[in-house]
Amino acid sequence: MPVTVQKQEETGVPAHASATPVSPHLGAQYNPFVGPHVDNPHAFFERLRKEEPVTFSPMLNMWLISRYDDISSVLKDPARFSNRDMLGSGTHLTEEAKRVLAQGFDTKHVLLGMDPPEHTRLRRLTNRGFTAQRIAAMEPFIREMTHNLVDKFANDGRADLVEQLAYPLPVHVILGIMGVPHEDVWKIKKWSADWQQLTFEHIPAEKQVEMAKGVIEFQHYCIRLIEDRRKNPREDLTSYLVEVEDNGEALSLHELVMAIGASMLSAGHESTTALLANTWKLALEHGMWGQLRDNRDWVMKFLEESSRFDSVSHAMIRTAREDVEIGGVKIPEGSRLLLLYAAGSRDESLCPHAGKLDMTREKVPQHLTFGRGTHFCLGAPLARLQYQITTNVLLDRLPDLRLVPKQDYGTWQSIVLRQMKHLKVEWTPRK
Length: 431
Hints:
By secondary structure, the chain is of the alpha+beta class. It has helices at residues 8-11, 36-39, 42-51, 68-75, 95-101, 118-129, 132-136, 139-151, 161-166, 168-178, 185-200, 205-231, 237-243, 253-285, 289-294, 298-309, 341-344, 380-397; strands at residues 54-57, 62-65, 81-82, 158-160, 245-246, 249-250, 316-320, 324-326, 329-331, 336-339, 402-403, 412-413, 418-419, 424-426. The strands form 5 sheets. It has a 5-stranded mixed β-sheet, with helices on one face. The chain has a 3-stranded antiparallel β-sheet with strand order 4-14-11.
């Protein structure tokens, strides 16, 4: 269905902002925070791809892009599509919350919200510290931590795999890489949640100030960590980032706080928690736990196919730098685009019967869960390693794992990430 846009003189909308389409559209039905689009958005996404692959959401003031090829073309074109508004997409902040946040650093040096060439420089320096060798060196710790967590419930015959494994493991792993004391894990989890929710969710006014204070506390914690590593360097990623130079220029304190706090300690575990839990749930829902147990070559293939089938990183945001046309729809300069990864990865143009979780595919198509282009997920190799280790440990130790019937997964969603609060399972304990 064609979508038209009113001119500025008709609407009063500035040329740099997205104008509101005048025709009825599916985008007006989309709500990523409550209702059916949280519990299972895929039926709606299928309608979008077929009927209105590019449509406008008045609620989000964003254009929804749902086809794989359209999303990929945007991700590969940073010259026309910017990340600059990525971190200003959630809560409409109260003046009091803004005053609290103004006491700390702004988010202009967070990798997720940067464009080349500034992003290129910071990403290059960060990549040097996040090497394959450094990630591989974490394998013994991840394995030991996984076994320690599973030890706590292996004999119970029942557990919540989110609360007891997928939630604590990734944050302990990233703390280990950064060299942060593990006794600080729950403080960092809370501060991270404050930051992520203010950035990507709609938070009620009465909760904003307290969460903003949490963000400032987190930044102060990072500053103390940076100062300590300058005096007492160690073999950890924090020490590397403090010492690294680019043509003789070190990272500024602002850049370090954002790299360590927002890009590593915060973003470095939330999506992995969601990925682990959702992948295990899909394996159990689709009766594939026994097949994975008996054919370990399928374990990593299942991660890729399940990520394609139901992406927890369900969307990402870009801003049009100029007037553009996507899928035959003209979009004004300054408009924000919500790239629906979860919709694009189920596009029939990507693979046959894309709406089916199919382990018989010769090769899993390149899904969008970890992004594409200059902003491909820095932590993807670490997330894959954690999944590989934890899933194999569970297959070894809980071979007859099954879902507790009729449970409430407590699914919730921000603009960009879909998660479960619970994944309750049961099994026959070994004697």
